[in-house]
Amino acid sequence: MEDLLTPILCHILLCVLLYVLLTVVRSPTVWGFGFKIGYLNAFQNIQPKVSANLSNQFEWPMLFYVVCVILITSGSTITNTQLYLAWLFVMGRYLHSFVQIFTSSIRLRGIVFTVNFVAVIAMWGVLFIESSGT
Questions:
Q1: Are 54 and 93 in contact (CB under 8 A)?
Q2: How many distinct structural domains can be found in the chain?
Q3: pLDDT tens per residue across span 75-107
Q4: Which residue has the higher pLDDT, 27 or 54?
Q5: Which domain holds residue 84?
Q6: Tell me, what CATH number does 37's domain have?
């Protein structure tokens, strides 16, 4: 169980980091600095990307959390395959966040999202296969 909690906590840490980043990039608008003396807020282009990425953390990752809760509460042994897939998902979420926020590459973002998507689908598949075999 503890092994699976670590990737979950790492994803929660990503969400916290995104909230901090969103606060930082919104602060010039909220507090009014960055617009004085004729120059624009340096973060105005990144703020919508951070906001969108933060919203993304509460969409597909919910299926990751559900499968993790089922695995933890089922009392069965969590396999190395499940742990590998959980870590693949979380590392992919970090990479997806970086790509979405700091690049304009839709193709790369799609590839990274696909890795995240497949990791969670595979976690569900392994869960169903292992639970039907017992």
A1: no
A2: 1
A3: 888 999 999 999 999 999 999 999 999 999 999
A4: 54
A5: 2-132
A6: 1.20.120.550
